[in-house]
């Protein structure tokens, strides 16, 4: 018998002897360590206390509050406030942002120091710090941007910029887009140029010819620009080009005659749709590869655009109607015929809205091509596309009568109207929160009105016809370009 076996038996006999004596506390043998029940209970309570302490410590570790390093930069729960704002396109670089503590220990006011135009108030919050997380897991950051604003003089001009064509004539701004609600607006002109403008200062950042390589561009009637979530795309008389946001040419297609520079529309990060003057529709991926081509709805036209909607459809408006295609395969689905339709359609998941020239009417159709209602105005609805609020309760339309109408999206009944000074060619647009409607006419009159009742917030007259429409920037700034080569940043307080 080995020594270990003799030792185990001796320990067992000793334990049994102690257990038979009721005057002694019961002992339990744990691999040679003798621990009483009371001691074990104390150890358990101690472990619970230690765990609770660690949980509290972990919570405190999660929420660190606002901290400032030696370089003056602030962090909130280990997230850099300045870098977070820069990623939101608050400034071009986090080094251009200065923050200081205000109104207590948990808030900062931050300013874009390069131009001094943008302000933000941020808060470091511990609202979610009590949420249990396993030990060793990193807690989420709780950094909230409470407000952002531009330093605008009420209803004044923040800046104005004049842009001339390469031949010295006035640039005529046709279309524009501000990707990702960023700091740069991209315009295409009737001279077939792509022009990038800093929305804070009006500075021209770069210019690119839409086709060819010289400063003598091919004039085109309807150039366009669009964005698919990653890249810019332009279409002119004889070329489709793809660009990075900093103006580098990615690819071009110029083997197909687009004639009048008919517009293109973006898919959700999946390239573009393009329509030529014969009515052929093509979808390209973001690398310029042809996905499909459809010619079943060929209609000679001098203006057309495509828009996704109604589930898996892409809807193309021509001069004489609308054609619907499957956006994945290009299969023709149906058409809606009209004598003259010169504006873009607006499509949701369940309906189509548009204005029509010859009938002087605004229409709502179902996604399978059936009319829901018709609103008859006092003149033609020509080039200006309608706007629809996100809740699909109101439609806003303007046309040759120089009147902005608000219509009930359910039945087409008029809610209110606002009179401009001339015909409207520019698309009607909504602010990001859909609380305000922007519209401009051919005399250069620009207006922003309350979406609820049509009361004006901004009324301003530029120097010439406005065709491009209005870009809303935040809650207190709009940018508009006219046919005299002028860009204006107009300020107002858009607070419902």
Explain how this protein is built.
With 496 residues, the chain is mainly β. 10% of the residues lie in helices and 41% in strands. The chain has a 4-stranded antiparallel sheet with strand order 6-7-8-9, covered by helices on one side. A 4-stranded antiparallel sheet has the order 10-41-40-39, with no helix packed on it. The longest helix has 26 residues, at 37-62. It starts with a helix and ends in a 5-residue tail after the last strand. The model is unreliable at 17-34, 55-63, 128-139 and 259-263 (pLDDT under 50).
Distance between the termini: 94 Å
- Percent helix, as a range, is 10-25%
> Mean pLDDT across all residues, rounded?
78
> Largest beta sheet: what is the strand line-up?
6-7-8-9
Quaternary status? single chain
Give a count of the beta strands, DSSP E runs of length 2 or more.
41
Main β-sheet description: 4 strands, antiparallel
Binned strand content: 35-45%
- Radius of gyration over all CA atoms, rounded: 33 Å
> What is the tally of helical segments?
3
Shape: globular
Low-confidence stretches are 17-34, 55-63, 128-139, 259-263
The helix/strand class is mainly beta
For the structure shown, list the relevant keywords:
about 500 residues, mainly beta, 4-stranded antiparallel sheet, globular
Describe the structure in brief.
The protein has 496 residues and is mainly beta.
List the helices and strands and how they pair.
Blueprint: H1 3-20, E1 27-30, E2 33-36, H2 37-62, E3 66-68, E4 74-76, E5 79-80, H3 81-87, E6 97-102, E7 107-112, E8 118-124, E9 143-150, E10 157-162, E11 173-177, E12 184-189, E13 193-198, E14 204-209, E15 224-227, E16 232-235, E17 240-243, E18 249-253, E19 264-266, E20 272-275, E21 281-284, E22 290-294, E23 305-309, E24 313-318, E25 321-326, E26 332-337, E27 346-347, E28 351-356, E29 361-366, E30 371-376, E31 387-388, E32 394-398, E33 403-408, E34 414-419, E35 429-430, E36 436-440, E37 445-450, E38 456-461, E39 470-473, E40 477-481, E41 486-491
Antiparallel strand pairs: 1-2, 3-4, 4-5, 6-7, 7-8, 8-9, 10-41, 11-12, 12-13, 13-14, 15-16, 16-17, 17-18, 19-20, 20-21, 21-22, 23-24, 24-25, 25-26, 27-28, 28-29, 29-30, 31-32, 32-33, 33-34, 35-36, 36-37, 37-38, 39-40, 40-41
């Amino acid at each position: 018998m080995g020594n270990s076996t003799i030792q185990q038996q001796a320990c067992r006999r000793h334990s049994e002897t102690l257990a038979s004596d009721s005057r002694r506390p019961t002992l339990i043998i744990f691999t040679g360590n003798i621990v009483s029940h009371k001691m074990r209970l104390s150890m358990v309570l101690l472990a619970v206390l230690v765990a609770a302490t660690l949980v509290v410590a972990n919570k405190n570790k999660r929420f660190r509050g606002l901290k400032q390093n030696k370089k003056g930069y602030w962090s909130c729960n280990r997230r850099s406030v300045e870098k977070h704002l820069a990623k939101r396109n608050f400034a071009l670089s986090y080094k251009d942002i200065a923050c200081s503590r205000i109104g207590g220990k948990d808030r900062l006011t931050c300013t874009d120091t390069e131009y001094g135009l943008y302000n933000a108030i941020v808060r470091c919050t511990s609202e979610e710090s009590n949420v249990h997380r396993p030990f060793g897991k990193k807690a989420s950051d709780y950094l909230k941007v409470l407000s952002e604003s531009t330093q605008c003089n009420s209803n004044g001009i923040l800046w104005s910029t004049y842009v001339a064509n390469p031949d010295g004539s006035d640039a005529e701004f046709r279309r524009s887009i501000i990707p990702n609600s960023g700091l740069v607006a991209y315009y295409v002109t009737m001279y077939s140029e792509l022009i990038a403008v800093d929305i804070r200062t009006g500075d021209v950042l770069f210019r690119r010819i839409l086709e060819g390589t010289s400063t003598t561009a091919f004039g085109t009637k309807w150039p366009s620009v669009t964005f698919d979530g990653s890249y810019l795309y332009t279409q002119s008389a004889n070329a489709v080009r793809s660009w990075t946001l900093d103006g580098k040419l990615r690819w071009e297609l110029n083997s197909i005659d687009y004639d009048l520079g008919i517009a293109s529309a973006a898919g959700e990060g999946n390239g573009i749709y393009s329509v030529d003057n014969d009515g052929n529709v093509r979808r390209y991926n973001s690398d310029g590869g042809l996905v499909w081509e459809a010619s079943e709805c060929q209609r000679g036209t001098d203006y057309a655009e495509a828009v996704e909607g109604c589930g898996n459809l892409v809807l193309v408006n021509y001069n004489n109607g609308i054609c619907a295609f499957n956006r994945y395969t290009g299969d023709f689905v149906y058409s809606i015929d009209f004598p003259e339709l010169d504006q873009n359609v607006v499509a949701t998941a369940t309906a189509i809205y548009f204005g029509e020239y010859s009938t002087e009417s605004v229409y709502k159709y179902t996604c399978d091509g059936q009319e829901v209602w018709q609103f008859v105005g006092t003149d033609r609805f020509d080039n200006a596309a309608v706007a629809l609020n996100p809740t699909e309760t109101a439609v806003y339309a303007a046309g040759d009568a120089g009147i902005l109408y608000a219509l009930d999206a359910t039945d087409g009944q008029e809610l209110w109207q606002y009179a401009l000074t001339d015909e409207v060619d520019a698309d009607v647009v909504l602010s990001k929160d859909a609380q305000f409607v922007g519209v401009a006419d051919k005399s250069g009159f620009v207006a922003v009105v309350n979406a609820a009742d049509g009361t004006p917030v901004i009324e301003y007259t530029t120097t010439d016809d406005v065709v491009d429409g209005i870009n809303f920037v935040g809650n207190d700034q709009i940018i508009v370009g006219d046919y005299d080569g002028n860009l204006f940043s107009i300020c107002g307080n858009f607070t419902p």
